[in-house]
Amino acid sequence: MNLKHHLEKIIAGRISEVSGLTGSKALINYAREATFGDYQANGIMGVAKQLKTNPRELGEKVLADLDLGGIARKVELAGPGFINIFISPDYLAQQLNTLRTSAALVQPLVAQTNVVVDYSSPNLAKEMHVGHLRGTIIGDALARIFEYLGQTVIRQNHFGDWGTQFGMLITQMQDMQQLDESELKKELADLESFYRDAKERFDADPEFANASRENVVKLQAGDSTCLKLWQAFIDISVEHCQALYDKLGITLRVDDIKAESFYNDRLAGIIIQLDDAGLLTESDGARCVFLDEFRNKDGEALPTIVQKSDGGYLYATTDLAAIQYRSKELNANRVLYVVDARQSLHFQQVFRVAEVAHFKAEQCSLEHLSYGTMMGSDGKPFKTRTGGTVKLMDLMEEGIARAFDLVSEKNPDLEESERREIASVVGIAAIKYFELSKNRNSDYIFDWDTMLSFDGNTAPYLLYAYARIRSIFRREDIVSPHEYTILVNDEEEQALALKLLQFSETVEQVSEDCYPNQLCLYLYELAGIYMRFYEACPVLKAETTVRESRLGLCDLTARTIKQGLSLLGIDTLEKM
Fold it and tell me: β-strands 152-156, 286-295: how paired?
């Protein structure tokens, strides 16, 4: 049960009863002044202002007949009109004992929704680089969280597989038609080099450039030869991406691809529909939609261009077709676009055009989940030492190599195979967690030393905390810790118990506002509270009933950390 929402509902109902105002709300926060994590409700002052009455007097009336059903051991009025709620240890124990016998740590959301998550979206003309890291990791974590809460999740990988650059690549491949499939794959093993070679020829050789432009036209017209070469390139590129997704632990699969080419046959229809709706205006030969709310600093209307003067279509056209498909055919209630912040204006315009053109159903919410830039130590976008773009596969390999050195330093007696297995998990986890622990709207400095540290809010710290808890249960006389009845008496037990119950509300909050860093912070705080509990409350040396209770708390903490990291796409280790 989400304790926070449950308390809010009870207190809001009581405020409404006392005030006579319907729809009163009670905001529940954690009271910082409490000895251990209790709650504080604030909803009285707003209602008192509406009634023009003293908030403390109103608060006394609310408390007079407030029935929290055994949840609280004490409730008191504080400050100008806050209600402090001190949770009963018996209630905490009751809830934890229900939780320990449950397969899931969170109940599914009551409201069932179809959630489309659009993320990763690489350009198949090039290999994935660090610029794709944030969107891929954030999107995957959100998809996992929605699924865990019982929602229907439809992953959409909007690959860039259409456009002028593919004419250039097709022309390059035409010169290799004498190669068999295995030889061609070898040539395309390094997509970046293949693209660079084609671009150099395009810039230096007018004949090659003209042939490339002609192949663009042929491709868009459905020429069978061009389509065959294009498909061969796409297939090999998708293999590159899937290998990277598998190594990074991303749940995207080939079936999730809905590339730009998927919408190609729908684009002419989008133009017709916009025209029929009276939304199109011609400007310098291009067809545009002008909406009053989008203007530049001089007050001039900004266009959403949907068709170029040469008849070609743009990203906006494809995105409008995608919105129509996702809303009307996939029946999405929410469509989440995990795309960097530089595209904010684009999505504001496209979402608004889709709304006024009725391309989306009324109940469909379109949300741009923007994110900032990964920066180097120099405060500029992260690059190689030579100034080039860092390939994502190279970044992961370096993370694993650094983790191996770290594991070897800390555990030199372990077999090399075991150290490499640990390093593979720690290296990938460190990269993913470092990203997810940051507010997605913020730029951040990429730093190996920080992300691989065993101190602070990092993956190694949490992986070690989990492994340390699990080490307790390797004793032969501890068989089924999840069967131990949990008691909550000491202050540290109460603090840990309440934090464990806050897992549900944390996950639900992330599903609402889509900030995975909130879950990271929760797990870090949980690990810290557990460490204080373990230091203050003897576990293995306690008498039988208390020992079993505390083992139950240890086991539930480990399960929660493991589940939380799993939602972030991070594997755990039983030993480190």
Answer: unpaired
